[in-house]
Amino acid sequence: MTRSWRTARVACSPRCRTTRPRSRARRASGPPIARPRRPTSATTTRAVADAAAASYADRLLAALVDAGVHDVVVCPGSRSQALALAAARLAREDRLALHVRIDERSAGFLAVGLARETRAPVAIVVTSGTAVAELHPAMLEAHHADVPLIAITADRPPELQGIRSNQTTMQPGIFAHAARAVVVALADAEATPEADAVRIVTEALGAEGAREPGPVQLDVGFRDPLSGGDAHAHTPVDRVVAMPRETHAIAPEPGTVVVAGADAGPAASALAIDLGAPLVAEPSSSARFGPNLVVPDVVASELADEVRRVVVVGHPTLTRVVTRLVRRDDVEVVVAGRRGLENVRGTVVEGDLVVEGEPGEWARAWVGRWVQASRRLLDADMAPIPGADLARDRYARAVLEDARRPVTRAMLARAVWEHTWPHDRLVLGASRLIRVLDRTVGGKPITVHANRGLAGIDGTVSTAIGVALAHDRAGGRGVTRALMGDLTLLHDVGGFHVPADEPRPRLQIVVGNDGGGTIFDDLEVAGTADVRDFARVQRTPQSVDLASLAAAYGWQHVLVEDRAGLERALTRAASCLVEVRLAE
Ligand SMILES: Cc1ncc(C[n+]2csc(CCOP(=O)(O)OP(=O)(O)O)c2C)c(N)n1
Question: Does 406 lie in the same domain as 377?
């Protein structure tokens, strides 16, 4: 790959597999992004060269703030020191919120959480080498879930490339098709950091051409001295605003079902009403409420035979019955999505759907049958009220016994959902619990975050901390709760590390501890593989002492072994790790 070391923009379509830095001649035909005028300077050429790294970093960070970035996550490193110090200075001046993390993988997911909750682009500063690669999981998740992340990767200058310099690799384009754009810059006297800032924020927000937001990379080569000197003034730039999404008309039709997957947003509930359609809304859709809501298992009933059209909003990932419905040849599928959406069957409309026309008489009966079937399924699933058939003297004992019952997965999922309200936030890990929750809870207008872009079990603690920090800062009265299994928690143990001088968010991390990954018990392989082999390589048992782990990171640990303990734990206000020992 040839590299052009003036700021060269690589525009990547979401499907693009390789990144191609454009030559200067080709750059001229790129999209017209206003370049601010360079500030005039009275310093000598030599002085400019000496301060080039610090100057670029100071001006870049200040321009990013102007353009709309508030949260900056910094990981330590030498090559990136000018960027880190510039961020620290702006944080001292209260111009941005600085989050310092040691592990870049956790830092990336912290940024995902912050960006999800604030809906603003979040920058992450890392040094060269493997530090850059550690961001890959978060960048992939951000690509598939349309989250605006800005990875600023410090690099060696061109003369130190290709000669086996320490900590040097091919960084531009390292995120392949996951980066919506790659901007390559060199921090020298010719650099244009303000223009680079505007460009990457524009790309991250998809502000040009009204695309969806997504992750971008700014790779900056720094020469010695890597920092030093007074703060450098920047030329102010305008805030970059995302373009409104396009809208497309859709008419009500008999036999329609609305499927709201992850990040569909609350509007999907109204869409179902306006279309006269039942609503199958995953918990991670934030649309699981309203009169048309049904549990996903209804899709497995004979009612599904009457479905003629499925309107998909967001990214459905949780139930096979829904996937099967969307794949049926005799069903028309309309997907409200974005350009370059991968793995989709059906007609993709780029933007939001707006209903034109009124549903006919048929709608009432159609939705009614689905809602009744859903109620029957939920009722059948509910545990009977303890002691309801007993005389009063034995009733109290029955209730007490019930309180001492061990906690099941369904009980835990229901309890977390019941204790969470619209002013709270819920973060769901990719454990079995999110699927159990999908099958067992009713409707509630709750804002839910889940990394369902790629449904990884990585980065969940960090994502939850990012969501909670942003929610607290916005004056949210509630608490953020994160629900996950034990392996998901252990995957991101490093995420528990919050520096002592940074705020600890109001966050309850609720872990359903069943000693391994039992999600695989539901798969065919559980019935076909050797029992011991299955346990060893699929379930991967663990017996980590979570109380000691929490203590090591300075988190309170609350152990829950029965139903009453669960109720008590979920009403605590303090940040803590709630370990729920699961009975099944
Ligand atoms: C990064 C990543 N690695 C592996 C997987 C595959 N995977 C999906 S769920 C799971 C186990 C989850 O275990 P746990 O969080 O304890 O939840 P449980 O299944 O016990 O409910 C694994 C390994 C994944 N989704 N993401």
Answer: no
